[in-house]
Each structure stands twice: as C-alpha cells, then as structure tokens.
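User: Just a sanity check before I run the rest of the batch. Below are the structure tokens for the first item. I only need the designed sequence back.
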C-alpha cells in the first residue's frame, strides 16, 4: 500500500499536548540493544522514569528510548502504557530488532507490523493479535533512502542488502510504527558498524543531531510507503478448475480482511492522504490477481499506475 498526501490547512486554537516518539529496544537481542547503546552514547540523553514493569527510559528532546528485558514482540501496548504512566502523548513508535532469513545474508531492513491475515482464535507466532495491523510509520520510505546513504558511507554496501520487509508480526501498537532490523545471523546482529548505522539513522532521522527530522508526514507531498502485504498475508483458497469467471466472493480465505485491515491502517497512518494499492503483477496467478482487483474495486480502493509511484 502506498500513500499520497493532499495539502490541508487548519488553525490551532489550543496548545497541543506534549507529543513524544518512542524508540524501543530489548536487552535480549544484540541487534536491538547494540544500536540502542550507540544511540545513548550520543549527547543529550537523560534518565527518564521507569515503568512499573521495570521498563527503563531515557529522554532526549521529544524522543523517549525504552529498554526492556523481554523478546521485542512480547511487550504489547507500550504506546498506551507510556501515555498512562506519564501523561505524554505518543505519536509514533520505532522498534530496533534482529532480522532472520534462510539466506543468512547480511541485511538492514525496515517494515511495518501486523498480522492482518490471521483469524480469531489463531495464535500469532510472533506477537500481535489476529486480524490487526498497526498504522505504518510514514518515515519508512524517506528513512530507506537515508539508510542507503548512511550504510554506503560506512562501507556496508554491497555486503549488506538494504531492503523493505513485508508486514508479519507484533507487538500490538495503535500509533504509526515501524521496525528497523539487522540481519541475518548472530555474527551480523553483533556487528558494531551495523549498530552504528542504525543508531545514526535514528539520530539523523528524528533530528536529534540538530538537523531537520526526515519523513515528517505533515511536511511533504508525493508517494509514501504504507502497509506491505506478501503472499502469505493474502491466504486465498484455489477455487479449482472453472469454465466461467471466478468471482472474488467465490474465493475463500482471509485475504479480503487482510487487504481491508492494511488499507484502514494505512489510512490511519497518513491522515488526509489518498491511499493507492500497488500490485506486484508477477507475484499472483491470474485468478488471484483478478479476484484482488475485483475486491479492490468493490472497496473503492484505487489501484495506482506506475507513474503514481515514481519518486517525486
């Protein structure tokens, strides 16, 4: 899913509540805690409150770095828990984590989160709740460009693949969220240069070094990256041989809910934007593609043309 902003103007009559950004790390994952330590080594950080569950925090401007001791997908609702404990409003969440892949190739990845394809009663293997997708963090696209630049300057390219991942896990959040990951084996999870690149991405991307933040949705127009669904997030039961046209309603599976959940989450992440669907034509069989196009049309979800997704 990709998003495009329309300009809007409004007036503000009341002083807004304190807005903060959460960066979340865990001590049990070297690809998470190592970049967090690199980030905390930079100037401006102060100790913050500790949540009742023993989650430690550090403050730097409008950024709060949270550090806990569980698996990164095990701490649901950190955004709401922070708001309840501090009275500060969370406007986005960024998780630092490891990435695993069968290829074992070194990689730096960015992705949104959710398990929109699971049905009620399913047990998510990596956190989240069935049928849910978090609003995608609008920074993902601009930060991918920045990540390539920083990784290249630290000589990680071409050794490391720099790429987006599809939506595939939790934890549960309600605010615009993204994961930044180091992959794909323990050797690379512990790489100091990879940790430095991720820390610098967050540092520069959030404007902590004094420069302008990168990827603020309210400041740019053009094409943005939203929820990303792969084939496993679109379960479609093969209708079998048919002499006539197969309609979308004839194809069972949770694929329709998955699309709708991803669309609604993307719309929440890009208020005021036009939501476009992008289809990787080569990833689908003809009956799958036809069903998806039919369903998108019935849902009034516009399918973008190649020109819609060009960098502006």
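Assistant: Here's the designed sequence for the first item:
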């Amino acid at each position: 899913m990709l998003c495009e902003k329309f300009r809007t103007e409004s007036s503000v009559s009341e002083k807004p509540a304190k807005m903060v950004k959460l960066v979340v790390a865990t001590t049990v994952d070297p690809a998470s805690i190592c970049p967090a330590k690199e980030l905390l080594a930079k100037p401006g950080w102060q100790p913050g409150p500790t949540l009742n569950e023993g989650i430690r925090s550090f403050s730097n401007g409008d950024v709060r770095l949270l550090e806990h001791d569980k698996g990164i997908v095990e701490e649901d609702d950190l955004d709401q828990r922070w708001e309840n404990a501090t009275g500060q409003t969370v406007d986005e969440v960024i998780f630092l984590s490891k990435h695993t892949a069968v290829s074992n190739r070194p990689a730096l990845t960015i992705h949104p989160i959710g398990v929109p394809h699971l049905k009620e009663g399913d047990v998510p293997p990596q956190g989240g709740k069935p049928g849910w997708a978090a609003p995608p963090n609008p920074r993902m696209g601009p930060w991918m460009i920045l990540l390539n630049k920083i990784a290249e300057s630290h000589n990680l390219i071409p050794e490391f693949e720099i790429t987006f991942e599809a939506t595939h896990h939790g934890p549960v959040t309600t605010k615009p969220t993204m994961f930044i990951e180091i992959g794909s084996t323990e050797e690379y999870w512990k790489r100091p240069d990879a940790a430095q690149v991720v820390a610098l991405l967050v540092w520069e991307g959030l404007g902590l070094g004094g420069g302008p933040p990168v990827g603020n949705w309210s400041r740019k127009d053009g094409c943005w990256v939203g929820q990303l669904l792969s084939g496993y997030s679109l379960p479609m039961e093969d209708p079998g041989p048919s002499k006539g046209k197969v309609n979308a309603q004839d194809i069972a599976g949770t694929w329709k809910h998955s699309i709708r959940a991803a669309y609604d989450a993307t719309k929440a992440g890009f208020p005021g934007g036009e939501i476009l669907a992008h289809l990787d034509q080569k990833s689908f069989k003809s009956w799958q593609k036809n069903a998806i196009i039919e369903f998108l049309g019935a849902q009034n979800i516009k399918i973008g043309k190649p020109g819609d997704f060009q960098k502006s």
